[in-house]
Amino acid sequence: MDFRDKQAIYLQIAEHVSEQVLLNHWPVGDKIPSVRELAAELEVNPNTVMRTYEFLSQQGVIANKRGIGYFPTEEASDRIRSFRREQFLQNDLPQFFKNLTLLGIDLREIETRYDDYVNAISNTQ
């Protein structure tokens, strides 16, 4: 995993874990990698992964079953989408609009490209 400088590593790992849940690579009911396993896989300190898991537990995305490990919650996907949607609308969308304006890109062009993207994805599934 390549880490970015502008965001805390534990939050970047939280994004990774969230993506695995959303992609159903780590489905509800299945145990996710232990703190040590994920730390070794990502080549980070186990304390960083522990901080990630504590953060995701507080968000209601994962739950710890004492002595067994961490599991995605039933509401994990909804909570992740809600949190990420709000982050996108507050942080990314204003920058996106700024770039559209500065570059003179019309929303119809964006809509066409978005439709092409959605069609390409649906053809690969």
UniProtKB/TrEMBL annotation:
<dbReference type="GO" id="GO:0003677">
    <property type="term" value="F:DNA binding"/>
</dbReference>
<dbReference type="GO" id="GO:0003700">
    <property type="term" value="F:DNA-binding transcription factor activity"/>
</dbReference>
<protein>
    <submittedName>
        <fullName>GntR family transcriptional regulator</fullName>
    </submittedName>
</protein>
<dbReference type="InterPro" id="IPR036390">
    <property type="entry name" value="WH_DNA-bd_sf"/>
</dbReference>
<dbReference type="InterPro" id="IPR000524">
    <property type="entry name" value="Tscrpt_reg_HTH_GntR"/>
</dbReference>
<keyword id="KW-0805">Transcription regulation</keyword>
<feature type="domain" description="HTH gntR-type">
    <location>
        <begin position="7"/>
        <end position="75"/>
    </location>
</feature>
<dbReference type="InterPro" id="IPR036388">
    <property type="entry name" value="WH-like_DNA-bd_sf"/>
</dbReference>
<keyword id="KW-0804">Transcription</keyword>
<keyword id="KW-0238">DNA-binding</keyword>
<dbReference type="Pfam" id="PF00392">
    <property type="entry name" value="GntR"/>
</dbReference>
